[in-house]
Amino acid sequence: QVQLVESGGGLVQAGGSLRLSCVASGTIFSINDISWYRQAPGKERELIARITSSHSTDYANSVKGRFTISRDNAKNTVYLQMNSLKPEDTAVYYCNAEIQVDISPRLRYYWGQGTQVTVSS
Q1: Which residues contact 42 (CB under 8 A, 6 or more apart)?
Q2: Helix (H, G, I), strand (E, B) or coil at 25
Q3: Which among 13, 23, 40, 80 has most CB atoms closer than 10 A?
Q4: Under DSSP, is residue 88 helix (H, G, I), strand (E, B) or coil?
Q5: Is the torsion defined by CA of 103, 73, 24, 111 positive or negative?
Q6: Are 54 and 72 in contact (CB under 8 A)?
Q7: What percent of the chain lies above the pLDDT cut of 90?
């Protein structure tokens, strides 16, 4: 079994920063792309950042220049550094990982349970 556990959410004032972490554990052969999504109340879940196994990154326009995704492959961990936070960044943040659990090339997709980020004005 594979588990993803996010942490680092909380309440912060506008303009502040938070750093989210997502740790993958369990039977893992390799991890391919890892992504951060967020879902605000009444809205669809949206992809905001992605990092490949070779550390290439991509961002949604809404967070580009403010958020930075990174990963530590040795620790099976991905981070999301969030700076210059705005009230509209308030959402539950989820990580999603493409994981190869054994020598078979089949990829499986896993979600974390989410961590709440609230930005006050």
Answers
A1: none
A2: strand
A3: 80
A4: helix
A5: negative
A6: no
A7: 94
Strands 10-13 and 18-26: unpaired
**The pLDDT value given to residue 103:** 87
First-to-final CA distance of the chain: 41
Nearby residues of 29 by Cβ (< 8 Å), 6 or more positions away: 99, 100, 101, 102, 103
Q: Report phi then psi at 71, rounded to 5.
A: -145, 150
Tokens representing residue 113 in the block = 């349970």
Q: How far apart are CA 39 and CA 55, in angstroms?
A: 24
Residues sharing a CB contact under 8 Å with residue 84, sequence separation 6 or more, in sequence order: 15, 17, 66
- Choose among 91, 7, 77: nearest CA to 43: 91
In tens, the pLDDT along 18-73 reads 999 999 999 999 999 999 999 999 999 999 999 999 999 999 999 999 999 999 99
* Helix, strand or coil, per DSSP, at residue 108: strand
Which neighbouring-strand residues pair with 73?
A: none
